[in-house]
Structure to design on (429 residues):
């Protein structure tokens, strides 16, 4: 569910018309719904606790949407943070996420990032290799801090909506094998600076079938039992994220209640253990839209129509990078649209000087004209987070809505702002 509906004949976010925001802030612009963010988090939390998973740590994947106001909205609802860089740790802390609810994941953490995480007191550092284990232990020993670590396991289970977001196969760069995990866990137990608290896995993103998750989780349960059988303490089992969001044309993802029931069934009888989860997309995707304005329609003699927008691939990269589908809706549908008027087939494109700057081809949409506003739905995850200044286009602003209020939570910079970040070489003066 999301809170983007027609009100008074136009598309609104909660109780604010998107046209009102577009008029005040300009386009393109990302708009987020506070109610949707909180609802998705609480639905997942209630499903997990309702299935008997006591006090789960739900750490929102900051990479999905790192805006501090978004993170603060979720933190106030009780969410922790799953982070993959020092910058994301700093964002989570700035948003008020307690350090004991921050999980530090990711391949290739630097010594400086690990030191920062240890000094901040994060709940857990997920280790992805033996060299990383040795580095964390050495830094912890030097600082006189014992780093609570979890060994990330690659269970060799394929899942995810695209090859580039599948992370659980043996050929993927993430984690260690099950056999390595047992050895490294025992090794960490004897290291002075990196006592292990648990094991972790994350097999991919935009997963719409529970079967691969259940297969991976069964392997993780068996690993916990083997480690405990060797006399090693395992306090936490981090099952990652990956549950899909509804992208309108894609398979409907499992209900959180079914997801929670599967976990409870798979882990039944495991004993006292805390479960951790790292959802991102399922919480943020449907909580955001990208509003754009039609520049013009370019009609070729052979009949192909290009709907040229002021948004581009630098604002929303997912279609170019992942062939991702986003539903596109008129913000101010005309009465004929609402009555099922004849759709028009467009190629929807942006102004960037690349053929890859194409959002979709041969998409049937209501008739549109220059100046009309459209909204890319399900754009709250990996939208603004992946935006750039490619072609020296200004970064897209972000707006957060709560009820009938809205606030700009990342302003659009000026061209002077953009140029001021670059310095001249002295020999070019």
């Amino acid at each position: 569910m999301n809170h983007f509906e027609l009100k008074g004949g136009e598309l609104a976010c909660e109780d604010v018309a998107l046209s009102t925001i577009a008029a005040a802030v300009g386009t393109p612009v990302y708009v987020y719904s506070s109610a949707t963010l909180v609802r998705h988090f609480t639905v997942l939390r209630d499903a997990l606790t309702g299935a008997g998973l006591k006090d789960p740590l739900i750490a929102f994947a900051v990479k999905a949407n790192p805006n501090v106001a978004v993170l603060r909205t979720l933190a106030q609802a009780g969410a922790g943070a799953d982070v993959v860089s020092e910058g994301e740790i700093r964002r989570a802390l700035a948003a008020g996420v307690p350090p004991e609810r921050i999980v530090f994941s990711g391949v290739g953490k630097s010594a400086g990032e690990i030191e920062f995480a240890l000094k901040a007191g994060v709940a857990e550092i997920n280790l992805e290799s033996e060299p990383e284990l040795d580095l964390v232990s050495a830094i912890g020993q030097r600082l006189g801090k014992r780093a609570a670590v979890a060994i990330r396991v690659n269970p060799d289970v394929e899942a995810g909506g695209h090859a580039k977001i599948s992370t659980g196969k043996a050929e993927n760069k993430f984690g260690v094998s099950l056999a390595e995990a047992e050895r490294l866990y025992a090794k960490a137990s004897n290291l002075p600076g990196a006592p292990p608290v648990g094991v972790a896995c994350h097999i991919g993103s935009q997963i719409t079938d529970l079967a691969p998750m259940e297969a991976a989780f069964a392997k993780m349960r068996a690993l916990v039992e083997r480690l405990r059988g060797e006399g090693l303490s395992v306090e936490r089992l981090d099952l990652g994220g990956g549950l899909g969001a509804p992208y309108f044309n894609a398979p409907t993802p499992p209900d959180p209640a079914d997801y929670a029931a599967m976990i409870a069934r798979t882990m039944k009888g495991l004993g006292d253990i805390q479960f951790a989860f790292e959802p991102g997309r399922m919480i943020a995707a449907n909580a955001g839209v990208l509003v754009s304005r039609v520049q013009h329609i370019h009609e070729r003699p052979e009949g192909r129509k290009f709907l040229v927008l002021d948004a581009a691939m630098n604002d929303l990269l997912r279609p170019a990078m992942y062939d991702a589908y986003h539903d596109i809706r008129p913000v101010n549908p005309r009465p004929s649209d609402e009555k099922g008027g004849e759709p028009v087939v467009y190629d929807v494109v942006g102004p960037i000087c690349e053929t890859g700057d194409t959002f979709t081809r041969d998409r049937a949409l209501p008739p549109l004209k220059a100046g009309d506003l459209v909204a890319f739905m399900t754009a709250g995850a990996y939208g603004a987070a992946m935006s750039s200044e490619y072609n020296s286009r200004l970064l897209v602003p972000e707006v957060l809505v709560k009820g009938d209020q809205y606030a700009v939570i990342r302003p659009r910079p000026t061209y002077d702002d953009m140029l001021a970040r670059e310095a001249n070489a002295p020999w070019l003066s």
Summary: Confidence is low (pLDDT under 50) at residues 159-170. Residues 4-32+285-420 form a domain with the Lyase, Ornithine Decarboxylase; Chain A, domain 1 fold (CATH 2.40.37.10). Residues 38 and 74 are 6 Å apart (CA to CA). The chain has 13 helices and 20 strands.
